[in-house]
């Protein structure tokens, strides 16, 4: 304790240098009020962080995501270990570090950004961008991809846009906002994130996404994708999507009803009804979807139509096996009720439909 008392009498710059170049955590553990006050000061933390940044020997230009992780562990975490959190990274700290140690601020800018954003300190993160030469599209978009993967939230995209990220450029490079990432947003029904990208002129891969949207999202997301497609490539029609919805067992009933409503009475309803019946063995909701289609205005007139000279019942019976017999029979009963001829129907099916 006497040694600490003597050190306290040293000029602050000298004491700061001694503590910085030794082990601040050890000094902190002494629980001396004066020493702790010094370590808690913004000026000390600036000097300490600058010292740690130089000691890591990582070049100012990062070459991979792992470099950023190293900066976080080697430069930011030692301070957080003492303070118990990253609350010490304030706007005053960023401003002071930029004034007194601008090179160090540039070196750890990406580490600061990632730490601040993951802690929700958006204004302070924006200050880092303003006071450094950091580029958000660094590492060919991998830095942004890491951020968005960790926080798939609208506020993250909005912050990136506010701070100058060119979404079209980074999207076209192919390392960020790829199909797999967009599929995650579709399956979690994050239409607001997809809308944000579309509003910035990005042409979404609708054909790839719609397959997942049918089974894992709500009708509004399916409608958004189709509206977006109509404004751009026009790769799909609602009739196309209806046939996809009939063959995809995972299509949920709400989405199926939405898709049906967006189509018009036509021969596609004939094929859709038959398709649902054909897939009944693998789709436990096939009959419910069939009823949804049948209840549409004028649907009955199209459901009963023959295709290539064969009635719907004949088409179904051509695919009849002992395994799918009981799955198909409810559809055959409905076809009979709607007036489809039972000519050439096997006797076993006739018995089931009595």
Characterize the structure shown.
The chain is mainly alpha-helical and 354 residues long. 67% of the residues lie in helices and 0% in strands. Helix 5 packs across helix 7 and helix 14 runs parallel beside helix 16.
* Main beta sheet strand tally, sense and closure: none
Structural class: mainly alpha
Number of strands: 0
Report the principal-axis shape.
Answer: elongated
- How would you spell out the order of helices and strands? HHHHHHHHHHHHHHHHHHHHHHHHH
User: So how many helices?
Assistant: 25
Radius of gyration: 32 Å
- How far apart lie the N and C ends? 99 Å
Q: Which consecutive residue ranges, at least 5 long each, have pLDDT under 50? A: none
Calculate the mean pLDDT score and round it.
Answer: 87
Layout of helices and strands:
Blueprint: H1 2-8, H2 12-20, H3 24-29, H4 33-39, H5 42-55, H6 65-83, H7 91-100, H8 102-107, H9 109-118, H10 122-131, H11 142-150, H12 154-162, H13 167-173, H14 179-187, H15 191-199, H16 206-216, H17 219-231, H18 238-247, H19 253-262, H20 267-278, H21 286-294, H22 299-303, H23 312-318, H24 325-337, H25 347-352
Descriptive labels:
mainly alpha
Q: What does this entry show, briefly?
A:
With 354 residues, this protein is mostly helical. The protein has 25 helices and no strands. Helix 7 (91-100) runs parallel beside helix 10, helix 14 (179-187) runs parallel beside helix 16 and helix 20 (267-278) runs antiparallel to helix 21.
């Amino acid at each position: 304790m006497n040694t600490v008392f003597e050190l306290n009498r040293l000029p602050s710059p000298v004491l700061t240098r001694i503590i910085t170049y030794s082990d601040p955590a050890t000094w902190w553990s002494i629980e001396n009020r004066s020493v702790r006050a010094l370590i808690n000061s913004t000026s000390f933390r600036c000097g300490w962080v600058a010292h740690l940044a130089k000691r890591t020997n990582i070049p100012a230009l990062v070459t991979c995501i792992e470099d950023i992780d190293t900066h976080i562990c080697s430069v930011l975490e030692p301070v957080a270990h003492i303070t118990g959190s990253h609350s010490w990274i304030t706007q005053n700290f960023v401003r002071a570090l930029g004034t007194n140690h601008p090179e160090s601020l540039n070196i750890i800018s990406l580490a600061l950004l990632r730490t601040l954003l993951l802690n929700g300190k958006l204004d302070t993160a924006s200050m880092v961008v303003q006071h450094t030469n950091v580029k958000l599209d660094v590492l060919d978009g991998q830095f942004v991809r890491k951020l968005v993967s960790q926080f798939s939230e609208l506020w993250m995209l909005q912050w990136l846009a506010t701070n100058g990220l060119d979404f079209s450029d980074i999207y076209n490079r192919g390392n960020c906002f790829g199909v797999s990432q967009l599929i995650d947003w579709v399956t979690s029904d994050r239409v607001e994130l997809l809308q944000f990208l579309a509003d910035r002129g990005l042409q979404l891969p609708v054909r790839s996404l719609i397959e997942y949207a049918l089974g894992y999202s709500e009708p509004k997301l399916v409608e958004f994708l189709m509206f977006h497609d109509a404004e751009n490539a026009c790769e799909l029609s609602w009739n196309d999507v209806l046939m996809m919805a009939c063959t995809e067992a995972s299509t949920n009933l709400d989405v199926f009803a939405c898709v049906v409503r967006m189509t018009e009475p036509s021969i596609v309803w004939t094929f859709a009804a038959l398709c649902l019946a054909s897939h009944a063995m693998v789709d436990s909701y096939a009959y419910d979807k069939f009823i949804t289609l049948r209840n549409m205005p004028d649907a009955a007139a199209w459901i009963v139509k023959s295709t290539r000279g064969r009635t719907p019942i004949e088409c179904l019976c051509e695919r009849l096996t002992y395994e799918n017999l009981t799955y198909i029979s409810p559809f055959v009963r409905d076809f009979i009720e709607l007036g489809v001829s039972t000519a050439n129907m096997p006797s076993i099916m006739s018995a089931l439909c009595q």
